[in-house]
Amino acid sequence: MGSVDYKALAPQILEKVGGEVNIVSMAHCATRLRLKLKDESLADKAGMFSQVFEVIEGAFSQPLDRDLVNVARFITHLRYFFVRVHSEEQVQDHPTSFLDAIATAYPDAHRCARRVADILELRLGQPITEDEISYLTLHVARLTQAASIGKPEK
């Protein structure tokens, strides 16, 4: 594994998060950099969407048609999710049995949603609640089922 050129990487990260003036605080561990931003809307959401779609496509070994209705629904869900994270109001009030039922009904989508949540935690600097992961699971399942069946969406 090659070494990382952190001096070259730092300006790229700053550009993606809206510049140094947009960073309120920063923390890191061996594997993650966590940034608290003043204004989440300044961060590169398009890059985040692309990364999320790459994870989903890789997990299911199938490309997603980014022009489908379910993809637009998923993007809308993520945009509302970003607002909830930014306002520190993530969904977190469903009973565990409900969340377990979703994970059981869609095991592959749930594993993928957990990977997506890891990326979102890394990019947004906040943990993602189990309820939000369950909603991601439902959206991932919808995306991948529509793509694998090949039926037109309504």
Describe this structure in words.
This protein folds into two domains: 1-42; 44-149, Orthogonal Bundle (PTS-regulatory domain, PRD). The protein is mainly α and 154 residues long. It has a two-stranded antiparallel sheet with strand order 1-2. The termini are far apart. 60% of the residues lie in helices and 7% in strands. Helix 5 (107-124) packs across helix 6 (130-149). The chain is globular and about 45 Å long.
Give descriptors for this structure.
154 residues, mainly alpha, two-stranded antiparallel sheet, transferase, 2 strands, 7% strand, 6 helices, kinase, PTS-regulatory domain, PRD, 2 domains, repeat
Give the SSE layout.
Layout: H1 6-16, E1 23-28, E2 33-37, H2 45-60, H3 69-86, H4 96-105, H5 107-124, H6 130-149
The description of the largest β-sheet is:
2 strands, antiparallel
By secondary-structure content and strand pairing, the structural class works out as: mainly alpha
Shape: globular
In terms of DSSP E residues, the strand content is: 5-15%
Radius of gyration: 17 Å
Q: How many separate helices?
A: 6
Arithmetic mean of pLDDT:
84
Helix content: 55-70%
- The SSE order reads HEEHHHHH
Q: How many domain modules?
A: 2
